[in-house]
Amino acid sequence: MKKSNFSPIQNFRKHKETVGFLNHQGVILALTKLENPNPRQYYSGYIGLIKLENGHTLSCPIHTSDIDNAKVNTKVKLSLRLESINLDGLRNYNLVAKIVSE
Amino acid sequence: MTNVYYKIAGLGQTKFGELYDYSIEDLIFEATNLALSEAKLSINDIDSVFIGNMIAGEVSGQSHLGAIFADLFNFNGPVIRVEGACASGGLAVYSALQSLKAKTSKNVLVIGAEKMTDFDSNIIGDCLMQAASQQERDAGLSFPGLYALMTQSYIQKFGLSRNDLSLAPYLMHKNALNNPKAQFQKEFTIEQISNSNKIADPIRILDCSPISDGAAAIIITTESQLEADTAYLADVEVATDSASISNRENQYSINSTKLASKKIYARNNVSATMVNVVEVHDCFSIGLFMAMEDLGFCLQGKCAELLKDICDGKSDLVLNPSGGLKACGHPVGASGVKQILEVSKNIIGSQELRIGLAQNVGGSGGTAVVSLIVNDKYFSL
């Protein structure tokens, strides 16, 4: 594998934080749709402010398949999304919120 | 004990806008010369210089603005670049005042300068997101997105109609008609603002301050006597909060503004009701609402009523006479200095306007700088 554009330490820190939130559930406090999402990321452009059950709050994009149903107070679970593929082909993953089916 | 007053002796501002012919050096050069000329001083009278700037490194490939200033003016004294995102200008003024109080300088020059229009808005947007948290960047947020979430939180908490939100840019564009330095000199109706293109729900394009080039400069001198028809920098305070909106007490107010203004009011026996003219940080429409409430000009959730009173001529408060960030423009490092310049202009020589305030915010509220500017008549209160 070729050397990544990210430093190994940056990647490790981001990975650790991402993995730490995986599968946590919470509710959407506020929701916005960016008309011009970051072109360097693969995501829906719908971003929620999410309050997790453990008390932590974070911003997280909503999964593309859930954008029609996501609104304030919708319950979601944090999963993984492919964030970007860099020029060396290294895949970077980050968090996405998926609606919890009742 | 000898009285000490910090006189705002010189004011200089370039036009704000898309200034393709201007480099960051040109902006600094012009604003500085205008301020020196008004103060009737030469560069040799200046003891130190503070330059507020956020992204000269990224946009102009030039981070070492101190050395650039030395080149431009053949100056060898201290020149310190100060950075705090969009609060860079306000922080430069704060730093300058500390230097004056410490008596390491008698006369200081403060410049805020930013060059932003050399790249497209996606690249500049990325540069500006350095003012947000890593987690917010990873989530794909932009500054419109961040302030959209804050607007949503405000609406959920207090209720706010789309047309009431539009009062902020409506008023800013009206004010800018009287400011020849403003980027935009065009009025909009409430309906035009409310129906403009969506950027990040519920924020519309006419809720957003523009990407701008520009510079503003002030010269502050130490004096032992008051002069008539003069503005003075009475006090500056800085407060900070988390970079991420997620980690704050709430998302519908900016706590750093509240903290900084509380200290200013307490130290100077002043309250918002005594302030005659104010320049606040309206990077997005909701920014103006939060600022007015956090500074105590109205109760929380009640800014729309205050704006209606201002529009109807029922309030004497002069709000963002420059046109604010929205209509005057927002070259990010310059705005904080421009605010103080504008307040000074409005109170110099005025019988009615004696006390002015400026509020400059970094990022989504991670830094707030609140400055108190008064004229000579304040000291006889």
Chart the SSEs and their pairings.
The complex is a heterodimer of chains A (102) and B (381).
Chain A: H1 8-21, E1 25-33, E2 46-52, E3 57-61, E4 75-85, E5 91-99
Chain B: E1 5-13, H1 24-39, E2 48-52, H2 56-60, H3 65-73, E3 79-82, H4 88-101, E4 107-114, H5 121-128, H6 134-138, H7 143-158, H8 162-165, H9 167-176, H10 190-194, E5 198-200, E6 203-204, E7 214-223, E8 231-240, H11 255-268, E9 277-279, H12 285-294, H13 303-311, E10 318-319, H14 324-328, H15 332-347, E11 355-362, E12 367-375
Parallel strand pairs in B: 2-3, 2-4, 9-10, 9-11
Antiparallel strand pairs in B: 1-7, 4-7, 5-6, 8-12, 11-12
- What is the string of SSEs of chain A from the N terminus onward? HEEEEE
Strand order of the largest sheet of chain B: 1-7-4-2-3
Q: List unreliable stretches of 5+ residues of chain B.
A: none
Q: Supply the helix-strand structural class of chain A.
A: mainly beta
The major β-sheet of chain B equals:
5 strands, mixed
Helical/strand content category of chain B: alpha/beta
Order of helices and strands of chain B: EHEHHEHEHHHHHHEEEEHEHHEHHEE
Distance between the termini of chain A: 42 Å
Distance from N terminus to C terminus of chain B (CA atoms, Å) equals 20 Å
The largest β sheet of chain A comes out as:
5 strands, antiparallel
The whole-number mean of residue pLDDT values of chain B reads 96
User: Going across the major beta sheet of chain A, what is the strand order?
Assistant: 3-2-1-4-5
Q: Give the helix proportion of chain B (percent range).
A: 25-40%
Gross geometry of chain A: globular
* Overall form of chain B: globular
